[in-house]
Every structure is written in structure tokens, then in C-alpha cells.
Amino acid sequence: MASSAKGEVHVNTILFVECGFGNDSHGQSATKAAVRACRNSIEFNSIPSVGKLVPGGYDGLKLDVILAIPPSYQSTLDLDEVRKVFPYGEAKFTIQDGGMV
């Protein structure tokens, strides 16, 4: 079972794992880089069986999103903007130190 940083279970069954990369070389925006990474991670997938596998179908999906952001940029991250990338489901974010500057 996947759990959040606080220990409570958010996802009981992992159906798939995607990875993405995003950056904002010129503007140095953590939000823009995170949006790009999230878009990159879901751009080319299709899961037509979600309606049968997940109670509530696409709207019932629970997404655990881990973002690696340089510590000095974490305070500027706008998770409401990043959340808009996901057209359905409930996204829960974990921010960890990482990324590139």
C-alpha cells in the first residue's frame, strides 16, 4: 500500500507508475517545472479499463504525486496550478528535496 509522508494510506492498490521530467530553464519557476513534469508523466498513457478496475471510474482515481523540487524553490510551488494538470481523480502531493537548479 502506498502511504503519504504522514503515514495515512491514500492508495490501496497501485495500478501503474509513471515518471515525468519538467524544467523552466529561463524563468526558474518551480510551478512551471512541476506542471511540465506532471504533463510529461501522463501525456501518452491510456487506461481504458479504469471504469471496471476503480470504483467510480476515472473520478475515483487516487493519484499519489511525488515532486522533487530544490529546497530553495519549494516555497514558490503552487500546487493548485499543478493539480489542474490532472483532469480527473484526487491528487495528493508529496514534495521532496531534489530536482536540478
Structural summary, described in words:
- With 101 residues, the protein is α+β, with helices and mostly antiparallel strands.
- It contains three helices and four strands; from the N terminus they run ββααβαβ.
**Amino- and carboxy-terminal Cα gap:** 32 Å
The overall pLDDT, averaged over residues, is: 88
Biggest sheet descriptor? 2 strands, antiparallel
Helix content range of the residues, please?
10-25%
Class derived from helix and strand content: alpha+beta
Strand content: 15-25%
Radius of gyration: 14 Å
The strand count comes to 4
Low-confidence stretches: none
List SSEs in N-to-C order. EEHHEHE
Summarize, please.
With 101 residues, the chain is of the alpha+beta class. The protein has helices spanning 30-42, 50-53, 79-83; strands at 2-3, 9-11, 62-69, 90-97.
List keywords for this structure.
single chain, 101 residues, alpha+beta, two-stranded antiparallel sheet, two-stranded parallel sheet, 4 strands, elongated
Walk me through the topology.
Elements: E1 2-3, E2 9-11, H1 30-42, H2 50-53, E3 62-69, H3 79-83, E4 90-97
Parallel strand pairs: 3-4
Antiparallel strand pairs: 1-2
